[in-house]
C-alpha cells in the first residue's frame, strides 16, 4: 500500500498555533464515467502577513485493490489531525464485528464512514478547547476513489462527519473558495466528459480562482485516475514554471477576451440590430423612477 502526500514547494515550519491557520483554499474533484480528477492548491493563511504552503491532497493507493484521494479545506490543525487519525481509525458496527478501516473497507461508502468517525474523534478531543479560543470547528473534506468490487464514488464530508455523494446530476464537488471556478465547471462537465478534458476544465477553474482570490495560490496538486485501474501515475505538482499551465492561463485569458470582443454591444438609440436590448418585457414593467418626494415606493 502507498500513501502519497507530495513534497512539491517549500513547506513552512509548523509553528502556527492550534487555532491559527485557516486554509482559504480551493479544491475540486470530478467524477466521470471514465475516471476521477482531483485538483487542489496549497496556500494557507493565518492573516494577511502570514501566508504559508501546505498540501491539501493525500493519495491512498493499494494496487489492484483500492485507490482513494482526500482533499481538505478549513482549519489546518483540524484537517491535519483528521488525516493522521484516518490512517489508524477503526469503525465497529457491533462489539464482535471486524473493525473497518480505510484499508479493509469493502466499499467507498464504508471508507467514508471511517473518515466521518475520524472527524468526530478530533471533534471530541479539540472542539471544546477551540471554542474557548473563539475558533469554530471548521473542516470540509472531499473523499473519492474506487475499491475493487464496486464502481468509483465521490463524497463531500462535513464537520459533523456526515457526507453526501456525487451523482450524475452533480458530478463534481468543490471545497474552499468555490465561487470563482464554478461557472466553467457547470458549463463543461458532464459524466460523459473525457478525462483529459475534465483535467483541463479543472485547471481553468483553478486559474479563474487564482486570478480573483489571493488566498489561493501555487503550487497545485493534480491527480487523474482511470476507472478500474486501482492505481495511477498521473500525479503532478504544478508551479509557476509549468509549461502547460502557463500556456493554459495565457490561452484562456486571450480566448475569453476574443470571445467577449466578438459579442455585439447593446444598442440604446434605435440602431439597426437583430438582437435589440431595449424591448418591453412581456411579463414585467421597466423599473419605475422616483422623481418627487411625494411618490410612493410601492
Looking at CATH, the homologous superfamily is Aminohydrolase, N-terminal nucleophile (Ntn) domain
CATH topology, which one? Glutamine Phosphoribosylpyrophosphate, subunit 1, domain 1
Give the CATH class: Alpha Beta
Number of helices: 5
Helix coverage percent: 25-40%
What is the molecular shape? globular
Number of domains: 1
Radius of gyration: 23 Å
Overall average residue pLDDT: 91
Low-confidence stretches: 9-21
Helix and strand sequence: EEEEEEEEHHEEEEHHEEH
Strand content: 15-25%
Structure commentary:
The chain has 298 residues and is an alpha+beta fold. It has a single domain, classed as Glutamine Phosphoribosylpyrophosphate, subunit 1, domain 1 (4-Layer Sandwich). Strands 1, 2, 7, 8, 9, 10 and 11 form a 7-stranded antiparallel β-sheet that branches. The termini are far apart. It has 5 helices and 14 strands. It is 27% helix and 24% strand. The radius of gyration is 23 Å and the shape is globular.
Which secondary structure elements does this structure contain, and how are they paired or packed?
Elements: E1 2-4, E2 22-23, E3 26-31, E4 35-40, E5 43-45, E6 51-53, E7 57-62, E8 66-75, H1 76-86, H2 108-132, E9 139-147, E10 153-157, E11 163-165, E12 172-176, H3 182-188, H4 195-212, E13 220-226, E14 235-238, H5 243-262
Antiparallel strand pairs: 1-7, 2-8, 3-4, 3-12, 4-13, 5-6, 7-8, 8-9, 9-10, 10-11, 13-14
Helix pairs in contact: 1-2, 3-4, 4-5
Amino acid at each position: 500500500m502507498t500513501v502519497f502526500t507530495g513534497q512539491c514547494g517549500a513547506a513552512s515550519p509548523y509553528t502556527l498555533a492550534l487555532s491559527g491557520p485557516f486554509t482559504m483554499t480551493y479544491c475540486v474533484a470530478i467524477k466521470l464515467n471514465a475516471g476521477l480528477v482531483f485538483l487542489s492548491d496549497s496556500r494557507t493563511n493565518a492573516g494577511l502577513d502570514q501566508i504559508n504552503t501546505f498540501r491539501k491532497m493525500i493519495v491512498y493507493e493499494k494496487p489492484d485493490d483500492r485507490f482513494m484521494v482526500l482533499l481538505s479545506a478549513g482549519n489546518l490543525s483540524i484537517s491535519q489531525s483528521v488525516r493522521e487519525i484516518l490512517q489508524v481509525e477503526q469503525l465497529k458496527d457491533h462489539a464482535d464485528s471486524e473493525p473497518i478501516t480505510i484499508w479493509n473497507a469493502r466499499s467507498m461508502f464504508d471508507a467514508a464512514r471511517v473518515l466521518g468517525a475520524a472527524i468526530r474523534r478530533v471533534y471530541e478531543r479539540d472542539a471544546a478547547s477551540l471554542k474557548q479560543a473563539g475558533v469554530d470547528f471548521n473542516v470540509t473534506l472531499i473523499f473519492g476513489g474506487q475499491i475493487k468490487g464496486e464502481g468509483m464514488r465521490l463524497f463531500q464530508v462535513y464537520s459533523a462527519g456526515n457526507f453526501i455523494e456525487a451523482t450524475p446530476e452533480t458530478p463534481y464537488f468543490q471545497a474552499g473558495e468555490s465561487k470563482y471556478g464554478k461557472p466553467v465547471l457547470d458549463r463543461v462537465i458532464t459524466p460523459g466528459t473525457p478525462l483529459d478534458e475534465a483535467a483541463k476544465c479543472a485547471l481553468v477553474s483553478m486559474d479563474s480562482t487564482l486570478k480573483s482570490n489571493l488566498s489561493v495560490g501555487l503550487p497545485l496538486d493534480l491527480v487523474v485516475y482511470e476507472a478500474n485501474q486501482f492505481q495511477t501515475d498521473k500525479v503532478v505538482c504544478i508551479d509557476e514554471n509549468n509549461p502547460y499551465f502557463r500556456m493554459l492561463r495565457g490561452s484562456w485569458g486571450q480566448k475569453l477576451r476574443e470571445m467577449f470582443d466578438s459579442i455585439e454591444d447593446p444598442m440604446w438609440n434605435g440602431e439597426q440590430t437583430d438582437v435589440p436590448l431595449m424591448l418591453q418585457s412581456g411579463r414585467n414593467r421597466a423599473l419605475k423612477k422616483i422623481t418627487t418626494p411625494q411618490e410612493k415606493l410601492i
